[in-house]
């Protein structure tokens, strides 16, 4: 017997939830009553627990909308499992900022997608800071929506930014951009050269909040009181010179990165395109019309903190190249470098 989509989506989502988070997520979902949850043995094997929860959902006649809401909540708890892209919208020349109504935005967004694509399922969940999470299950003109590979969008009302989980369905991006632009009353939309698994860090970068919302560290310790790691048996003149240099490096690093934790990005990518230049005549490369191309990628579990530590650790000179230090200010971790 073939499962109904709602039951299958709900079952798959419940199976993904770690046992340690099960009660928290189910209470956030608020679909099963407190009394119903008390009847469940949460210490039993997971497959038995899932079966009991699915039966309760069936008793409550869970709809596809209910299952989609549970999936959004799970994704909110595990947002770092997605790779997020950032889109920036803008108003037309002379356009004023309109009063924003979240319910009107949802209605308009859904209508635009439905009008263009018959088979699409759109679900919403309001979140903190006037944000709305959107789950989109895409279909085609001839196929029903694929509930198992949805896209997610996080939009902060009255801002020009939207964050989308990277989707394999690239053909739907223009339609998604159109729906976001019209529903939020903007004029155009562009994809920024910024991507990460850490949605909160992306938000901090584009909203310029990383020096406010992230906790500061070591900010109460004066620079001269920090350990400089000097050898007490060294010549006093060398010690003095090393101390001055270390203080300079610390000062320059702090001026560039600040004295607070950095937003979390996993990589920065640089594509270089340049024509071959040589004072010597002739040669294969000299006759080449196509530019030389090179790709350099810096990767780290916490790239900006790693870059921040290079000079103080003596691995690189201070200051670092602006190409490395400009990432938060420019809101980019994809760069294309071409000849001027």
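Sequence proposed for the structure above (340 residues):
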């Amino acid at each position: 017997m073939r499962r109904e989509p709602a039951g299958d989506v709900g079952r798959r989502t419940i199976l993904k939830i770690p046992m340690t988070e099960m009660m928290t997520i189910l209470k956030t979902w608020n679909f099963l009553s407190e009394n119903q949850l008390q009847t469940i043995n949460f210490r039993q094997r997971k497959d038995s627990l899932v079966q009991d929860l699915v039966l309760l959902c069936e008793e409550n006649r869970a709809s596809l909308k209910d299952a989609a809401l549970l999936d959004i909540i799970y994704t909110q708890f595990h947002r770092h499992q997605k790779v997020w892209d950032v889109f920036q919208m803008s108003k037309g020349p002379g356009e004023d900022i309109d009063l924003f109504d979240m319910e009107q935005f949802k209605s308009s967004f859904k209508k635009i997608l439905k009008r263009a694509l018959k088979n699409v399922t759109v679900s919403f969940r309001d979140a903190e800071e006037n944000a709305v999470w959107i789950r989109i299950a895409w279909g085609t003109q001839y196929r029903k929506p694929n509930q198992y590979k949805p896209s997610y969008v996080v939009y902060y009302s009255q801002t020009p930014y939207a964050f989308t989980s990277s989707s394999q369905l690239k053909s739907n991006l223009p339609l998604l951009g159109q729906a976001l632009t019209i529903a939020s009353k903007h004029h155009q939309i562009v994809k920024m050269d910024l991507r990460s698994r850490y949605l909160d860090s992306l938000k901090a970068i584009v909203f310029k909040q990383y020096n406010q919302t992230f906790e500061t560290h070591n900010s109460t310790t004066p620079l001269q009181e920090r350990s400089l790691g000097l050898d007490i048996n060294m010549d006093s003149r060398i010690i003095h010179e090393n101390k001055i240099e270390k203080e300079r490096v610390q000062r320059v690093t702090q001026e560039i990165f600040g004295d607070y934790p950095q937003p979390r990005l996993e990589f920065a990518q640089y594509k270089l395109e340049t024509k071959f230049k040589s004072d010597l005549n002739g040669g294969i490369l000299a006759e080449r019309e196509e530019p030389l191309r090179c790709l350099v990628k810096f990767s780290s579990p916490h790239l900006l903190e790693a870059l921040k530590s290079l000079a103080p650790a003596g691995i690189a000179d201070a200051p670092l190249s602006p190409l490395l230090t400009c990432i938060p200010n420019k809101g980019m971790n994809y760069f294309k470098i071409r000849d001027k």
